[in-house]
Amino acid sequence: MDLKRTTALILAAGMCLSSALAGDGDKVKDAMKDMQKQSQDAATKAQDAAKKAADDAKKAIDPKAPAAPDMNADPKMAEMMASMTPGEHHAHLAKFAGDWDVKSKMWMDENTPPVESTATVNAKMEMGGRFLYIHYNGDMMGQPFKGVSMMGYNNNSKQHESVWVDNMSTGIWYSTGSCSADGKTYTMSGTFTEPDGTKKTTREVTSWTGPDTYTMEFFENIAGGKERKMMELSYTRKGGGNDTKPEIKKPETKKPEISK
User: Fold this and answer.
1) Whose CA is closest to 105, among 242, 241, 234, 228?
2) Cβ–Cβ < 8 Å for 138, 120
3) What residues make up the domain containing 15?
4) Domain check: are 106 and 48 in the same one?
5) I want to staple 219 with a disulfide (CB 3.0 to 4.6 A). Which of 42, 78, 94, 227 is the partner?
6) Per residue in 115-140, is it b (16+ CB within 10 Å) or e — as a string?
7) Between 215 and 3, where is the model more confident?
């Protein structure tokens, strides 16, 4: 019972006493006894309620209760956090972000000249700097050609991983590999399936040739354990120049004419 109700009972008891005083003496005594009993009961219930509330509060702040886990103190949790965090390899990938002009060469076989075409590429880092998304727009053999690639570095497997899809295939090209310590050369290996169902392994080499240029070369394994070059893509960052030093021509000097 709360304090408000206790106060109300006391006031009511006072009113009963006042009324009783105006009547018979025995009735006054009985009324006083009833009032005292009700007051004692109300006080006891109020004390019990207060004690229960104090006990509940003590349990809520019990020092023996388990504390929240410290993520840094738990080795497993720290290991998981490290595996989720982008690092040096992701910083290397971020250098590919931007808009690019592309010149491509594709060899149908070793005995014919390459088919040449052009394209544009938009690349950006996504998922908090964890993955490089590449959108390729160009043409191939006179037909519109679009492709999308996603590349990242897996902290757990310690390797680069990439996938490629385009509008001239229904398959997904998976590749895995590594990069040099300076992040300037990437070597990836993958497989693709031919229309007749045979699978071929591939090798892809990406090399930075300057701050704003890089090349991608694609090779496939052929009979006899040999490989042949299928494609070469040359990338130039838009507005970044071609990273080649201009040829400096020396000014021509004319021999003085000798008057006769």
Assistant:
1) 234
2) yes
3) 3-56
4) no
5) 227
6) eebebebebebeeebbbbbbebebeb
7) 215
In a domain, 9, yes or no: yes
Same domain, 113 and 222: yes
Condensed to tens digits (0 to 9), the pLDDT of residues 233-253 reads 999 999 875 443 333 344 455
Residue 203 pLDDT > 80: yes
Inter-residue contact 5 to 42 (CB < 8 Å): yes
Give the 3-state secondary structure of residue 148: strand
Q: What is the pTM of this model?
A: 0.64
Residue 203 and residue 247: Cα distance in Å, rounded?
35
Is 123:134 a contact under the CB 8 Å cutoff? yes
Task: Kindly state whether residue 28 falls inside one of the protein's structural domains.
Answer: yes
Q: Total domain count for the chain?
A: 2
Extract the runs of DSSP E, i.e. beta strands, from 56-142: 98-106, 115-126, 131-140
Alpha carbons 206 and 234: distance in angstroms, whole number: 10
